[in-house]
Amino acid sequence: MYNINNILRENIKNLTPYSSARDEYQGEASVFLDANENAYGSPLDQQFNRYPDPLQYKVKMRLSEIKGVPARNIFIGNGSDEAIDILFRSFCNPGVDNVIIVPPTYGMYQVSANINDVEARKVLLTEDYQLNLEGIAEAIDKNTKLIFICSPNNPTGNSINREDVETLLANFNGLVIVDEAYINFSRQKTFIQELTEYANLVVLQTLSKAWGLAGLRIGMAFASEEIIEVMNKVKPPYNVNESSQQLALEALANVDQVNGWIRETLLQRDRLVLAIKEFEFVLDIYPSDANFILVKTTDANGIYDFLVNKGIIVRNRSKVELCEGSLRITVGTPEENTILLDTLKTFK
């Protein structure tokens, strides 16, 4: 049975987190002489001489309204990559523990495992890009702490069968991390709604994709309060800067605009699929619940080089397991998509 104390690293259990100046008082204040900041301000039009809110309270409250989950169940990081790294550092003993990843998938899980000296056991997806539950069960041992599942998956674009994820959640004694970076483009509902059902569930989301804030580096983790408390204890004290917090708040007030972009992206995705499948060098286009499509071709390297020479950059995934011969193409604006299609018409 899952128990957070059975998987948490001993040094993290005993860790006394860094106590920042902003953590050590309650209430309102007007004179701040506690953090060795520059009292005169910043050499900018806007003032950034004060440290940011270490727990991003205002941003979490707005996210709480949008996502329908209490703020205490939200972690905000410097991109989702920080949340991934903190999960490794909190729950995986270097050189001892292992995690399970299910390629083809987001490459940062493997990179974080390597950085933290944690074995990443690969269980390939099936030919239709779904979980191999039997293979995952065989790979789990007493030192398996985390299972990473990207849904909708990158680079394949498809959503993972919900029932299969729930099977893992119900039977695995470690954490199941569901990375929903592309959930805004999907027909599948978010796993955030299942947080009260599964204590070992962590859901990752981001403001980088549908929200168009990749340059601000705002990632989110949604989990039980006890998991969020661990992540807050391990993170750097001021991990999300003040400008990112302010701009995120401004963006989160524009839900209707973002929803309009999502609808347009889905229309353009359908347009690309219909047009690209007509090219004779295209063997298959896989079903997508994301803002990109994975296209299997007869000559991925040749097409990629041809497009680069024309100033068009797509992602060559032909060396990724189960994606041989495939290009990942992001859905652009109508004008960008027209340029892509017109250029592909000239490929010999």
From TrEMBL:
Keyword Transferase: yes
Gene Ontology terms for molecular function: histidinol-phosphate transaminase activity; pyridoxal phosphate binding
InterPro entries from the UniProt entry: Aminotrans_II_pyridoxalP_BS, Aminotransferase_I/II_large, HisP_aminotrans, PyrdxlP-dep_Trfase, PyrdxlP-dep_Trfase_major, PyrdxlP-dep_Trfase_small
GO biological process: L-histidine biosynthetic process
Coiled-coil annotated spans: none
Cofactors: pyridoxal 5'-phosphate
A Pfam family it matches: Aminotran_1_2
Domain of life of the native organism: Bacteria
Keyword Amino-acid biosynthesis belongs to the record: yes
UniProt keyword terms in alphabetical order: Amino-acid biosynthesis, Aminotransferase, Histidine biosynthesis, Pyridoxal phosphate, Transferase
Pathway the protein acts in: Lipid metabolism; Amino-acid biosynthesis; L-histidine biosynthesis; L-histidine from 5-phospho-alpha-D-ribose 1-diphosphate: step 7/9
EC number: 2.6.1.9
Catalytic reaction annotation: L-histidinol phosphate + 2-oxoglutarate = 3-(imidazol-4-yl)-2-oxopropyl phosphate + L-glutamate
Residues that bear N6-(pyridoxal phosphate)lysine: 209
Top enzyme category: transferase
Span of domain Aminotransferase class I/classII large: 45-343
Family that this chain belongs to: Belongs to the class-II pyridoxal-phosphate-dependent aminotransferase family. Histidinol-phosphate aminotransferase subfamily.
Self-association and partners: Homodimer.
Name of protein: Histidinol-phosphate aminotransferase
